[in-house]
């Protein structure tokens, strides 16, 4: 298997390499690409040093079995179609193709069947969406979600390495902010991404549109508020749902226990405890009646929300699904 990783030096890129190693995926060859900033640096992969190369116009004009992209939407828009046209299956962490018709938006546990005999670009969903749909897909199949109201508490690493550095500098006393619209240290910022004409943010509309596409149901009414909090790793979500069919809480617990890569727990997990895990932790499930419930979920945004999902897509596709 011949692999390339574009954006290998970033938060997601580095984690994808780690995850490939953890899954004992040892390609015959791997090429690592970045911008000119990191070109020439050395990265370790399966015990060997690999030199990172600058992504250039002709870099991907060759055959790869898989090319993993995590260098932002503008890079993906230009380079992913080139890689795909040379025969690669592209797994793209950016938002570039998530809403494109004909491009599967995949969370393997939910709609991995879309990968069967598929070649071309596969889109990896947004981090907040992945952990939310993993905790809701079985409940949706059984009871039919009508309304989902979600408030997120998103770690600074969701904004990439620059987000981590900005919080670290503010912790050391800096008052400057460039990545987040307000100071994030000792604060909470209720905007992620630009505000659109409908007053929702880009991040919020990702949660709306991606959830509908992954669950294959355009009728679900989704009401997100996405919030940045001064946490390094791990997104949290408070989710309220209304269902078509009645349930009792034990019914929901049964579905959650059966949901792949989801842990239903009485423990009160926080991001600090679950960083480094590949699971979604669901707790505090509660209700006043038979059609509405609340739950809390926590997951590692770089792993569950990006790198692990991408490598799970690769594994499932390579195994023929
Ligand atoms: N962080 C998350 O929780 C998360 C979750 C889901 C999806 N994503 C998506 O994953 C992507 C990467 O996110 P990240 O958090 O890893 O960001 P990051 O830490 O800022 O890393 C960005 C990576 O892209 C590379 N890059 C930037 N411009 C490039 C260019 N013109 N050509 C080639 N490489 C270029 C960077 O290389 P240099 O080292 O040279 O700068 C670096 O390797 C984004 O699309 C993001 O939306 C992130």
Automatic annotation (TrEMBL):
Key words of the record: Oxidoreductase
Pfam families linked to this entry: Semialdhyde_dh (PF01118), Semialdhyde_dhC (PF02774)
Protein name in the entry: Aspartate-semialdehyde dehydrogenase
GO BP term, pick one: amino acid biosynthetic process
Keyword Amino-acid biosynthesis found: no
Matching SMART domains: Semialdhyde_dh
EC number per UniProt: 1.2.1.11
Gene Ontology molecular functions: aspartate-semialdehyde dehydrogenase activity; NAD binding; protein dimerization activity
Top-level lineage group: Bacteria
Enzyme class per UniProt: oxidoreductase
Family, per entry: Belongs to the aspartate-semialdehyde dehydrogenase family.
Active site: 127 (acyl-thioester intermediate), 235 (proton acceptor)
The keyword Nucleotide-binding belongs to this UniProt entry's keyword annotation: no
InterPro entries named in the record: NAD(P)-bd_dom_sf (IPR036291), Semialdehyde_DH_NAD-bd (IPR000534), Semialdhyde_DH_dimer_dom (IPR012280)
Organism this protein belongs to: Mesotoga infera
Chain ranges of the Semialdehyde dehydrogenase NAD-binding domain: 2-118
């Amino acid at each position: 298997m011949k692999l390339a990783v574009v954006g290998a030096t970033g938060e997601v890129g580095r984690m994808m390499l780690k995850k490939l190693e953890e899954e004992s995926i040892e390609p015959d060859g791997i090429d690592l690409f970045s911008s000119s900033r990191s070109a020439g640096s050395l990265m370790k992969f399966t015990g060997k040093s690999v030199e990172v190369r600058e992504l250039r116009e002709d870099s991907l004009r060759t055959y790869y079995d898989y090319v993993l992209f995590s260098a932002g939407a503008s890079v993906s828009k230009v380079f992913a179609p080139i890689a795909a046209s040379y025969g690669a299956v592209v797994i793209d962490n950016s938002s570039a193709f998530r809403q494109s018709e004909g491009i599967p938006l995949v969370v393997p546990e939910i709609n991995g069947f879309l990968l069967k005999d598929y070649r071309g670009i596969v889109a990896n969903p947004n981090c907040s969406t992945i952990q939310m749909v993993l905790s809701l897909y079985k409940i949706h199949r059984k009871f039919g979600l009508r309304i989902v109201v979600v408030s997120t508490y998103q770690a600074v690493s969701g904004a990439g390495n620059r987000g981590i550095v900005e919080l670290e500098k503010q912790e050391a006393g800096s008052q400057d902010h460039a990545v987040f619209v307000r100071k994030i240290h000792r604060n909470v910022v209720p905007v992620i991404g630009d505000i659109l004409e409908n007053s929702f943010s880009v991040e919020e509309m990702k949660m709306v549109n991606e959830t509908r596409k992954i669950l294959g149901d355009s009728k679900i009414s989704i009401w997100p508020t996405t919030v940045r909090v001064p946490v390094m790793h791990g997104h949290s979500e408070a989710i309220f749902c209304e269902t078509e069919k009645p349930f009792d809480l034990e019914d929901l617990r049964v579905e959650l226990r059966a949901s792949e890569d989801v842990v239903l727990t009485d423990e009160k997990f926080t991001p600090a405890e679950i960083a480094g895990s590949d699971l979604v932790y669901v707790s505090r499930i509660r209700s006043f009646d038979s059609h509405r419930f609340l739950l809390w979920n926590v997951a590692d945004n770089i792993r569950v929300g990006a790198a692990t999902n991408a490598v799970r897509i690769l594994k499932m596709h390579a195994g023929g699904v």
